[in-house]
Amino acid sequence: MKAMIFAAGLGTRLKPFTDQHPKALATVNGKTLLEISILFLQKFGINEVIVNVHHFAEQIEKTIKDNNGFGSVVTISDERQEVLETGGGLLNAASYFNGEEDFVVMNVDVLTNLDLGKMIAQHLNEKNFATLAVLQRESSRKLLFDKQMVLCGWKNISTSQEKISRAVQPAIPFAFSGIQVLNREILNMPFTGKFSMIDVYLHFAKTQTIKGFDHTGDVFIDVGKPTSLQEAGSLGIF
What we know:
The chain has 238 residues and is α/β, with parallel strands linked by helices. Strand 10 (151-156) and strand 11 form a beta hairpin. It has helices at 33-42, 57-66, 85-92, 116-126, 197-204, 226-235, and strands at 2-6, 27-28, 31-32, 48-53, 73-78, 102-107, 110-112, 130-135, 141-145, 151-156, 162-164, 172-183, 210-214, 220-222. It has a single domain (2-235), classed as Alpha-Beta Complex (Spore Coat Polysaccharide Biosynthesis Protein SpsA, Chain A). The strands form three sheets. Strands 1, 4, 5, 6, 8, 9, 10, 11, 12 and 13 form a ten-stranded mixed beta sheet that branches. Strands 2-3 form a two-stranded antiparallel sheet. It has a two-stranded antiparallel sheet with strand order 7-14.
């Protein structure tokens, strides 16, 4: 199985570090977020990875080359001209997954001890269109699921804005963890240019089975701010 790591973002919350570097090269206990992500995937037998780049792209390319991919075969998806967000970034790299029935996608700035192997097994056993790692935590944006953990919508908690794919009661809110296992059919998405994977999921949730994988209780840190880097470092597990 192959994977994609989203590493093209500007990382504005990590300023001033990201004024001179990509967020993927921020470090926790001497390891870059990129290395941590690659090593995380290796734990579950995933050694072929594509990484999208935009902000200080050449620094990421050099780091990968200098470290021999940290033991994985790493391909670059170049978004230097325009950062395409998560959905556009995946679509831009679609040809990398030719011949793959299913694959993993993750954000470079999420740190977790999630059992990805268990999540992949559930995805394959249930033949899901997509399986999204989610958990109960504070977040201003939530994905909404029915009692069977099938995706039915999205809500901005701060503004009460909702996007509903299927009306169900009750709709149970979970925060997205930025890790997903996808069937290759999702690459037939009816979008172009710059767009979010959330829009893709909400579109397909009307007709396909997109399930949540609840890993509440696992360690999870969204490494968006310098303080969260310090928090991750203090745990000593990354």
